[in-house]
Amino acid sequence: MVRAQLSATERLVQVAQELSHARELREIMAVVRDAARELTGADGATFVLRDGDQCFYAEENAIRPLWKGRRFPLANCISGWTMLHGEAAVIEDIYADPRIPQDAYRPTFVKSLAMVPIRSSAPVGAIGNYWAEQHRASEGEVKLLKALADLTSLAMENVQLYGQLQQRVREAGDAVRAREEFISIAAHELRTPLTALLLQLQRLEGLSRSRPAANQDPRVPESAARAVASAQRLAALVDSLLDASQLTEESLQLKAEELDLVQVAREVLERLTLVAQRAGCELLLLGACSVPGRWDRLRVEQLLTHLLSNAFAYGRGKPVRVTLERVGEAAHVEVSDQGPGIAPELAGKIFERFGRIGPIAQSGGLGLGLYLARKIVEAHGGGIRFESKPERGCTFIFELPLQSPPR
User: Fold this and answer.
1) b/e map 273-305, b = 16+ CB within 10 Å
2) Strands 44-51 and 54-62, how do they pair?
């Protein structure tokens, strides 16, 4: 008896483990129908679900077919009685119990049964055991079935919660996709009028400097230049939004070509000369004279632009250095400023989308630059990190394999 009880306990533990992995109701029913029969040595077992005012015999494991797939009214079925009363039914002789519908049982092998509800409060189903010979289920057998029913109830609740979680994940995914589609459309719609506005402002700036009117206010060229700079910043923000909405592991496609990274860096620095001057930053290009490899020119230019713009924003009035070297089979690049540095608590956030190093008033950005930089580096098969000390500046370091991986 002790050995049998130990075996039953071990089987319950196994059932608990199996049910913990179930993600669908059918998986639960398959485990329970087999375990119910094994735990008591019965000749058959059924898994019954409550379906409104009916009992649905959803699963079974028996020496001969029982009622799988059939429905009966709760009031005319012993499983219904068990669910309505929230208590077990133990019947030694089914033909001597008025709760048994004789016509339903007469074609079967069943002579005795034990039925337990799944949950005592508001039962959602029942587990039935059947014997081909008259047998009165012992107190121990009933306890085992009740323990199985308790495990089943927990598993069904877990599956329900899991289903709800999956639904929320799907809804969240749909919301994210809708948001990013909106951002992409909005960025595209904004880009066209912004481009036209920027061209007009640049033309106005040029006219104010080359052909000033006789009574022109001397502040007009300076105001025009500030307007151009503001429009350029707004255009850069719109481009960043567009990139952020499209830049995923699946959508970022590289167009690798033979490049000299030093030459690309030199061109980027030349384009940003006026921006550096406005920030009071001296631009220095150090290191190797040439670092050839295969990369996406546009993405590398974006990468350097984001890192340099970040350095100008936080290292105003101090030198900004770009150092390029070849280290093994990779290009090693460092972009250094002498600003306030990055607080340690921000280390895990700055490369995330909409992550931010400092207040928006300081950078004027959306917190996308370093996120985009990371995505570009990773798309090339490289890595990016930073080193920083308070009040001693920050250095962003990235490596790009000389041969970008195929995309």
Assistant:
1) eebbeebebebeeebeeebebebbeebbbbbbb
2) antiparallel
**Spatial distance between the Cα atoms of 199 and 269, rounded to a whole number of angstroms:** 22
CA pair distance 407, 402, nearest whole angstrom: 15
pLDDT at 4 over 80: no
Instruction: Name the pTM for this structure.
Output: 0.49
Local structure of residue 406 (DSSP, 8 states): P
Are 148 and 126 contacting, i.e. CB atoms less than 8 angstroms apart? no
Largest CA distance in the chain: 118
Residues 333-338: what's their mean pLDDT? Answer: 94
Asked if 318 and 339 count as a contact pair (C-beta separation under 8 A), the reply is: yes
Identify the H or E element spanning 335: strand 330-337
Reduce the DSSP state of residue 116 to 3 states and report it. Answer: strand
Q: How far apart are CA 346 and CA 98, in angstroms?
A: 73
Query: Which amino acid would we find at residue 108?
Result: T
What is the Cα Rg of the chain in Å?
36
pLDDT in tens, 181-213: 676 667 666 766 777 787 788 788 787 777 776
Q: How far apart are CA 96 and CA 100, in angstroms?
A: 8
Closest by CA position to 130, among listed 149, 152, 146, 108: 108
At residue 77, the 3 state secondary structure works out as coil
Nearest residue to 255 via CA among 292, 295, 291, 293: 295
Main-chain dihedrals φ then ψ at residue 13, nearest 5 degrees = -60, -45
Q: Residue 46 has what DSSP assignment?
A: E
Confidence band, pLDDT 50/70/90 cuts, at residue 300: very high
Residue 340 is given by DSSP the state S
Secondary structure of residue 397 in the 3-state scheme: strand
Q: What's the distance, CA 310 to chain centroid?
A: 28
d(CA 393, CA 311): 9
